Amino acid sequence: MSKVTSALVIGGGIAGPVTALALARAGIRATVYEARDSAAAGVGAMLSLAPNGLDALRIVGADEAVRAVGQPVPGVVMADGAGNRLAEFGGFPGLPPTLAMPRAALFRALADHATAAGVRIDHGRRLVRAEETSEGVTATFADGTTATADVLIGADGIRSTVRTLIDPGAPGPEYGGVLSFGGYADGGGVRAEPGVMYFAFGRTFIGYWRLPDGRVCWFASLPRTEPLSYAEVVRVPAADWLARLRDLYAGHVPGEKLLAGTDPIDVMITGPMERMPSVPRWHRGRMVLVGDAAHAPSSSSGQGASLAVESAVELARCLRDLPPAEAFAAFERLRRPRVEMVGGDAAAKNKAKAGQAGDRPAMPAPEQMFAPVHLHHIDWDAPVTAQAGEDRTGKSG
């Protein structure tokens, strides 16, 4: 197969628009097709974008658009459920701070930036099948329309349709043992310095940071052996979930105060914490996966969005320099070791969130914990060869 000049990108969340922007920089024309009717307004709760994600966004010129909707939280404090500080970290010199923001705000910022840069995003286009030929791949959507390009890229998330087209036996997301919630507390009596993200472990886990308006945004876990779907979770009134969380966090510092200062109307229901197990096949023929469709770590990693952005940029580098089959293979070699390392670490954190690690979980020094993820840098100008990634270091090039 010859070099790529056009691409269909399925999914308009995080990886989709960034992939299209990176492909455009590589000289490849891409159109994004999103099943929803708009840029996911109101979807999801809060997330963070780490320095490595912002570094990758800088390559496609989207970093400033994202900074405009994010709150800088460069500091990290680890504590136990009794209020004892275990470790502190102020970030690495020279790196941008981690940003916290609503997921929907990030979706909108990336979609708006991509559109302004000339990327076409078609909404209301749900993929149902794809057919390959020696000349290209044709996507068919639920409305009966079709589109054809040299390659098709599945950026369609943890319940990816493209993943099942590549491999009908591919695994789906797996449950992490907890239900996830978030909310806004009045913050009275809770020590939370501006610009610091706190992680407090006990019988279970709560994270929190102070918002510019003085309130405290928190995210918490409710251990549950049997999973519930998101639809099942939201059918339960928020007041009932808040009552269960208050019972669980009784005596927890500062979880008890945060939950006591939260009104049910300010509770965000995220649903079951899920992650993707190792996906055996990332590509087949002219189709390839990127972002959560291939490697969704649980939210415990704090890296889901950042890894998706990194992979989008790396995939574009590979398609810039190699024909599809070689590009997809090089892309997987470059990315799989890194994303599976992060995913495995997040799975271990889930045990602490489910109350299985005790009040004082063992942890490395923050610098050791964050260095492998935050210091990662993609050299856009470095050429990609067919042997890229064969040393299994996870470095770009």
Automatic annotation (TrEMBL):
Keyword field contains Oxidoreductase: yes
Stretches of the chain forming a coiled coil according to its record: none
Swiss-Prot/TrEMBL keywords: Monooxygenase, Oxidoreductase
GO molecular function: FAD binding; monooxygenase activity
Database matches in InterPro entries: FAD-bd (IPR002938), FAD-dep_Monooxygenase_BioMet (IPR050493), FAD/NAD-bd_sf (IPR036188)
Domain FAD-binding: 5-173, 279-319
Domain of life: Bacteria
Name of the protein: FAD-dependent oxidoreductase
Species for this entry: Microbispora bryophytorum
